Amino acid sequence: DAKTTQPTSMDCAEGRAANLPCNHSTISGNEYVYWYRQIHSQGPQYIIHGLKNNETNEMASLIITEDRKSSTLILPHATLRDTAVYYCIDLAGGTSYGKLTFGQGTILTVHP
Amino acid sequence: EAQVTQNPRYLITVTGKKLTVTCSQNMNHEYMSWYRQDPGLGLRQIYYSMNVEVTDKGDVPEGYKVSRKEKRNFPLILESPSPNQTSLYFCASRSAASSYEQYFGPGTRLTVT
Questions:
Q1: Are B88 and B104 contacting, i.e. CB atoms less than 8 angstroms apart?
Q2: Which residues of A56-67 are buried (b: 16+ CB within 10 A; e: fewer)?
Q3: What is the pLDDT of residue A73?
Q4: pLDDT tier for residue A29 given thresholds of 50, 70 and 90
Q5: Are A48 and A62 spatial neighbours (Cβ–Cβ below 8 Å)?
């Protein structure tokens, strides 16, 4: 799996958009970008994934740069319950036998 | 409700006393995995299973065993636990048709004294 880099921590005010960046400069052409989050000591939770195009679901939006070397996870209206560690992961779809390699992630703290 | 369950959620044991952590999923998923999470080391895969009777080692398999006799269950066995196996353990499952969305259990916090 290619390596991703993320800021160690970020803060966000409740109700504002949280924009979490991720660099994946060594990503291969068939590798997707996945985002998970982990709320304090709970099991990680899938958020969103993408390959080339921007993606949106009920939880978040994912913006991938044209060169695919970086991406941004956007939580449009952050709430206190979004305080968590956010992990950006890249891996080839269907070839990893389910192994997700989690880095250190970004600790997002949402303030009232 | 689609879920992955683990038992026990908390366990304190002594060195050398065999233990089993159970994992069960109700989504008919083919793939199941065990991870351990330690401060500063992130989540590391211990073992995974691609289907019944098909298992393989992950990144940190030493000291652990697994079995997959039924599709829904994937127990983690520590034959002779040691203090360095004190950790937070997660079981996860996913469908073979979906490589991206893994469902994680709530975690088992194990302390070996």
A1: no
A2: eeeebbbbbeee
A3: 98
A4: confident
A5: yes
Instruction: Compare all CA atoms of chain B with the CA of A8 and give the residue at the minimum distance.
Output: B40
Task: Give the distance from residue A95's alpha carbon to the nearest chain B alpha carbon, in angstroms.
Answer: 8
- Confidence label for A77 from pLDDT (cuts 50, 70 and 90): very high
To test the contact with chain B by mutation, choose from A31, A100, A107 the residue with the greatest count of B C-beta atoms within 10 A, namely: A100
Cβ–Cβ < 8 Å for A45, A34 = no
pLDDT over threshold 70, residue B16 = yes
Which regions of B4-82 does DSSP assign to beta strands (E)?
4-7, 10-13, 19-25, 31-38, 42-51, 54-57, 65-66, 76-78
Q: What's the sign of the alpha-carbon dihedral B23, B61, A2, A94?
A: negative
What pLDDT, on the 0 to 100 scale, is given for residue A96?
A: 53
